[in-house]
Amino acid sequence: MGFIYFTGILAWVRLIGRNTNIDNAFAWLLFAIFGGVYFGLFSATAKAIRQRLHWPDHFILPVVWVAWEYLRGHILTAGWPWGSLGHTQYANPAFRQLASVVGVGGLSFLVLFINILGTDLLEKFVRQTRGLPPAWRSIPFSLASLQDALRKKTIQTVVIASIILLGIFSGVYVVIETLLFVNLPKNTLTVALLQGNINTRQKWDSTYRKKAMATMRDLHQTAAKQHPDLIVWAESCFPGILEFEPLQKWNNQLRSLIRESGIPTLLTSNEYLQEKDLEKKPVWHHYNSAFYLGKQGQTLGRYRKIHLVPFGEYIPYNFLKRYLQTVVQEPVPIDFEPGDDYSNFRLDPVNFSVLICYEDLFEELGYQLAREGADFFCVVARFILQ
Known about the structure:
CATH topology of the largest domain: Nitrilase/N-carbamoyl-D-aminoacid amidohydrolase
Helix content: 40-55%
Strand order of the largest sheet: 1-2-3-4-5
Radius of gyration: 26 Å
Order of helices and strands: HHHHHHHEHEHEEEHEEHE
Number of domains: 2
CATH class of the largest domain: Alpha Beta
Mean pLDDT: 81
CATH architecture of the largest domain: 4-Layer Sandwich
């Protein structure tokens, strides 16, 4: 079941990069297998807990599911929250509003709880109509039998009461938030999004840099003719390194282009920052950063990526670093460092924040940025099509 689930969700892996179809298909199936393992761990854990506590499925399964979703997304494999069950509600405006209270994990819980509860009720009804004895896991069908069962299980009563109270509180809170949102004054901004389809795996020689910059210059100038309030470049489309002296030529070209258009621009770039340690020796810090440039090409602000991609932007665990440097021809050349500043940028009359690619999967990061005053997010990502 898990393999089928992730095979569908991760089908896009076959379309990216410049690997051969065999390479992409191998990565696609490998990730699907690893994702499927979590389904097995979920069912084994749920079975063990059910046999010990003898609680009904519609309470045990959602709790265990959400726990494994969290482990998959934040701890094990260095964080991979792709395809959580709560994400299925992205197109349901009434239900997804609950995410502001209970998060994506809460949505996953409710989706599973409602489906299992409905299945149990249907099973109970079918068994009654056919004169069959009730299944051991079925919930009491009558209110009286439910009350009787709860009297015998104090802990279960507390859990059920807590869930009901949380549900009532969440529902009231969502209604209030929705009414407040509807009555908020609305602002309109025009944003131009530029996808240069730049292949960062190709050798960054002078010829390719010129080609990439020419592509982005044409896109930028075309977008500027429509007079947007903001121009956003896709991730890694700038062929230089901003504010890095050896590549100053590309910095000058970029800032000159923005001055000509006179439109604020958001883009990403590697950032190399030199500082001195306690012994006054130079130390380099490396970040994946988003730069917000003003109408005159000046730097108005920057956001350093907080949640980095494991094995893409850093290698977790020291023993893996040593192993990969031994067996891999081209390992991650240097680890990026995570940022620690929840930056906001001003675009009158609102503020916005940036989520760089993989970061948009982590709701707690968006929550912190919103607390700092963000009215909307710009998600900048790199997606290369053959």
